[in-house]
Amino acid sequence: MIVEVPGYRLAEPLGAGATGVVYDANRLADGQRVAVKVVHPELVDPQYRERLRREARAAAAVVHPGVVRVQEVGGDGNNAWLVMDRLSGPDLQRRLADDGPLEPVEAAELLASVADAVHAMHEAGVIHRDLKPANIILNEGRPLVGDFGVARQLVSLESSTGFDLTGGSSDWLRSDAPAGPPLGAMAGTVAYMAPEQWRGDPVAAAADVYALGGTLFSLLTGLLPYDRKTLPELAYAVAILPAPQPSQYGVPLAFDAVVARAMAKDPKERYATAADFAAALRAVGSVSAPPRTALNRRWLIAVAALVLVAGGAGAVVAQGKGAATEELTVCAEDATVRDAPRSRTVVATVYQGDHLTPIAPRDGDSWVHVRLRDGSTGWALTDFVRHEC
């Protein structure tokens, strides 16, 4: 990574991602404070630089109060950089981490403004491709879409993770395959990617609409749209599972339909434009709900843990009294039962249509403790064994 950009003095990094590092900087000509994003050199080739310049010019032609302005784009050799307005406010990911989820009305108003800005960029022929809370900056309380990059080509999953998604085998999607690489910090980038981006299909405005839907879910709940620990688990959820429902976390029911349509698997079933998404948000934004106390994330996790323990204890007591327990059905073609959550040790293989008895408590939302017909026990992924297939 270079640390020199002609005409600018770079200071400390403001953040880093899959495609580059953003620095606080001063322009030498007039002393103006700006933000400079330096793209990772290994991602840059002549075609990339030309595409970056072309789309930067298109983005710069759009004057919208909700878009971080790109002042300049440059590069030489294997280097490329973008010069953008320097903002002082936190991004929404930081806001969520510090203060927890937003009130529904606030989330609707804020993200509708973001969708308006995204629509303006779409009208100029520029697709963001990486919308997420971390790329929405609060500047004096007003949200601005940043890191259009500008509409850069996302780093492929293969180069980001070293995990082969195109080797001609689907074993990585099977429940008995190795867990694959942990998501870690990469979750912030891939968690909001539309199914067609995972497949490597051409990306259109509908991919940004999908990301807006995932961002809405996160703003309402403080959680990722699909909270998984490994790339295969996340890929399966994005490709197969229905959109997450904010109402499961105390959010007004009307928001479920907005998230579901925005995050539809088929791009043609999503909102036709980001402006349509904004209109839908404004329509449900007036839905009243009891105000939720602004709890920080640690407190929310603590409360959830207490509820989980209490619920698990209650279930054990109920089972001890002979209460009926609804069985789980294996929904996948086949699935494995492990000796512990996230373990690689398989104790049994079960097949589509088999029935398992759940044992409380569950290990979060990803794994469930089950008893097999022969009396043996183990842990299964909730994606593969459910009450209804």
Automatic annotation (TrEMBL):
Its EC number is 2.7.11.1. It comes from the Bacteria. Residues 8-282 form the Protein kinase domain. Pfam families: Pkinase. This is non-specific serine/threonine protein kinase. It is an enzyme of class 2 (transferase). One of its GO terms (molecular function) is protein serine/threonine kinase activity. ATP binds at K37. Keywords: ATP-binding, Kinase, Nucleotide-binding, Serine/threonine-protein kinase, Transferase. InterPro entries: Kinase-like_dom_sf, Prot_kinase_dom, Protein_kinase_ATP_BS, Ser/Thr_kinase_AS.
